Amino acid sequence: MRPTPKVRPSNYKLPASRPLTVYAFDPTAGRRLNNYMTVAVPYEELQPGPVGARIAVIDYDASNQCYYEPVDLDHPAVIMNGGLEPSESDPRFHQQMVYAVASETLRRFEFALGRRIKWKRHRGSKDDPFRNKLRIFPHAFQQANAFYDPDLRALCFGYFQASAEDPGDNLPNQTIFTCLSHDIIAHETTHALIDGLREFFTKSSHMDTPAFHEAFADIVALLQHFSMQDAVLDTINRTGGLIYKAQLPAELAATNGKAAIIPELSEDNPLVGLARQFGQAMGMRSALRSAIGTPPNTHDLDSVTEPHLRGSILVAAVFDAYFTVYIKRTRDLMRIARAGGALSAQGDLHPDLAKRLAREASKVASQFMNICVRAIDYCPPVDVTFGEFLRALITADSDLLPDDTLGYRGEIIKAFRLRGIIPENVSSYSEEALRWCSPDVSGRPVPPCKGLVYDAVEAEANEDVEKTARQSKANAVILTKYAKDNAQALGLVYTPGREPNINAFSFHPIHRIAPDGRLVVDFVVEFLQKKMERLDPKDPKSPEIEFRGGSTVIFNRAGEVRYSVEKSIGNQSRLESQREFNLQSGYATPAAAYQDTFKIPARSFAAIHRGY
Predict the structure, then answer these.
(1) What CA–CA distance (Å, rounded) separates 504 from 527?
(2) How many C-beta neighbours within 10 Å does residue 278 have?
(3) Domain locations along the chain
(4) SS3 state at 181
(5) For residues 507 and 479, is the Cβ–Cβ distance under 8 A?
(6) pTM of the entire predicted model
(7) Ramachandran assignment for 383, one of left (phi > 0), alpha (psi -120 to 50 degrees), beta (any other)
(8) Spatial contact of 524 and 552, defined as CB atoms under 8 Å apart
(9) pLDDT tens track for 227-237
(10) 17-197 sits in which CATH class?
(11) Which of 84, 115, 181, 341 is most buried (CB neighbours < 10 A)?
């Protein structure tokens, strides 16, 4: 007998990413503008669903009480084709799409923050197989809605029939799947990510807080449009580089002032519209929302309270700054183009110039995405306002890039100022005044925090669960003691043996590379406090509300406090403002007229999104 040959052990390396095909916008765009785009999702071994280490797609349809066949993205037939081809009728592609877009949105956040993100803490059974995962239900119910459910820690996407009278580009009564809208998936995933980063931003305690949640989710979804090079290039060619135009001009001049063929029709700009198919299917004849708001009006915030409408003011401010920076960065190119003949009298661009402008638009959008996401770490732990977000934006960006040679921060400040967004407790709109400061600067010296372990991110990446747990427990003990010893300097209220206590709710090391090559290592901590207060302090039988406070504290590698962003639980004006907000919210509910007792409404993404 011949000896059995020895099998050499394999040394194949796993791929860094998995290519998956998705809609860049939604099914109504067909194959135009490279609407069939490939997303390079970070590679991981997947169970049918798909179910990975952090995302679980569960295709249960509650309206029809059935499960749909789960897609197996590790099947050879699927892998060899780069995933399934886009299909409105195949639930397995729907599962692939929500997994791919959610994974890509998660990747962008983690790149900007410089650390691995955890979803909101799960308080269910330890036997739950999806305990540490974000659940996604692509066909959760038959309704014109999609939302993030914090209690389930799940994204729930609905499906519904388009308007019979005015369906836009859809067929009358066509079935519309919200899980096939790139914008809607990115929007809902962003809600889940913010909930993991700042869990108490879902608690309505100020009119800006729910509006911020909606605005930030729209900002992330809209900025992702500008990473789609073919769509950006087409828009640049049709607008002469003015990518902020709400309408794309017709490719040909109309015959006798009236369009005779399709090229003589103008179109909506796909880059600035959010969830176009959904908006048209609801009979709105346009996208659901837009990056282009009303002209700057410093009085809008005085009267607008609905979360989406109020949030649109913040969205408009961010995109005002983005488009202004893009124009400033490409102004020299346009001047050279005019002088050199690359720009015709009709505004047509030379192909090389158009590609150069498209790259610049994508680059600036990516930078704005990073600035906005990083700012979350510099926000207070509760009750965030638009003005505080402005201060967080300026602080986060100047922290990483002290010299703002391209004027990004100046344009952000100007855009926020023109929208009437006024930060509290600052002397002016200057960068120096807007940046958060350390307790030392404010006259409250605080010693460094010694003994913090900064390599928890590396341990987690290596899946050393026991080591990570030990480090986290040790950090929690150190931070809690430190906060109690230095409560006043950190904007906290503490008396030994009395409420409210201090909770080191979350703490994360941050590793970032600055544009000049510097490695920036910090440690961001949420210290939280809570006490129960009567809605009406004069009535002992009135409902109780949770009054929360705390501080976001950022330490450097030496344990020194760099910034302390405070929302003191001892601030009486905050308490009165929160009481008034809850009263107004309770009386504004539709059921208020039919209830014998006053009831404070719970924060619900489902209810807010049902209003579109």
Answers:
(1) 5
(2) 28
(3) 17-197, 201-244+291-436, 456-570
(4) coil
(5) yes
(6) 0.91
(7) left
(8) yes
(9) 988 889 989 98
(10) alpha beta
(11) 181
